Amino acid sequence: MPTPHIDASHPDQIAKTVLMPGDPLRAKYIAENFLENVEQFNETRGMLGFTGTYKDKQVSVMGSGMGIPSAGIYYSELFDFYDVDCIIRIGSIGAMQEDINLKDIVVATAAHTDSNIFNGYFGNTRFAPTPDFDLIFDAKQKSDELGLTTHFGTVKSSDEFYGNEEEIYFDRLRHFGVLGAEMETAALYLLAQKFKKRSLGIYTVSDNIVTQEADPAKERETGYTQMMELALEIAPQ
């Protein structure tokens, strides 16, 4: 039963929990460095997907591409066609608070968005999708156990990477405590709620929009191992 975007011919080729970075090369890195007994289930459009085991539990990892339109296709197909129960997004995020440092971890308790896709669902209602509470709780416990610097709060899922947001709105988001900006999580939380599934967004801070600090591209692909380990540790069976 391959879909237009995923090669897997049977749901058993994909684990019930899928970790999803935007970058397919990050998915490949995780499969090669954290998983055992790895089998590749997707290469359509270069969006690599792998299934293996981590500490005796089956886990899949697959790229989603950049932005809500791309990621939303893969989230929908995994939830609806392959009966995936849980997707954990693992990505990079631009911090919007000065006290959040490079390589800190952010866990999104809700996702704001400027995406017009939401208008097709709710019209003028500004629906705020949220993740699975038990996954947030597990992430907090495991983060403390591993001694990680982790921030819990809301994020903004932007439709544009090179946006032209007026400074007043950026400052207002900061004032209201938004931790950072990324591009996919609002779609993940929306679609998980639509299909009655579980989801969570975990990110490593790759840059700080306020201080203008930033990590190089290669570091974003392979260097964010604490985020990867945290996601793998809390991944449900």
TrEMBL record:
InterPro entries: DeoD-type (IPR004402), Nucleoside_phosphorylase_CS (IPR018016), Nucleoside_phosphorylase_d (IPR000845), Nucleoside_phosphorylase_sf (IPR035994). Keywords: Glycosyltransferase, Transferase. It comes from the Bacteria. The active site is at D207. The record marks R220 as: Important for catalytic activity. GO terms for molecular function: purine-nucleoside phosphorylase activity; uridine phosphorylase activity. Residues 17-219 form the Nucleoside phosphorylase domain. A purine D-ribonucleoside binds at H5, E182, M183, E184, S206, D207. It catalyses: uridine + phosphate = alpha-D-ribose 1-phosphate + uracil; a purine 2'-deoxy-D-ribonucleoside + phosphate = a purine nucleobase + 2-deoxy-alpha-D-ribose 1-phosphate; a purine D-ribonucleoside + phosphate = a purine nucleobase + alpha-D-ribose 1-phosphate. GO terms for biological process: purine nucleoside metabolic process; uridine catabolic process. SUPFAM superfamilies: Purine and uridine phosphorylases. Phosphate binds at G22, R26, R45, R89, I90, G91, S92. Pfam families: PNP_UDP_1. HAMAP family: Pur_nucleosid_phosp. Homohexamer; trimer of homodimers. Catalyzes the reversible phosphorolytic breakdown of the N-glycosidic bond in the beta-(deoxy)ribonucleoside molecules, with the formation of the corresponding free purine bases and pentose-1-phosphate. Belongs to the PNP/UDP phosphorylase family. This is Purine nucleoside phosphorylase DeoD-type. It comes from Atopococcus tabaci.
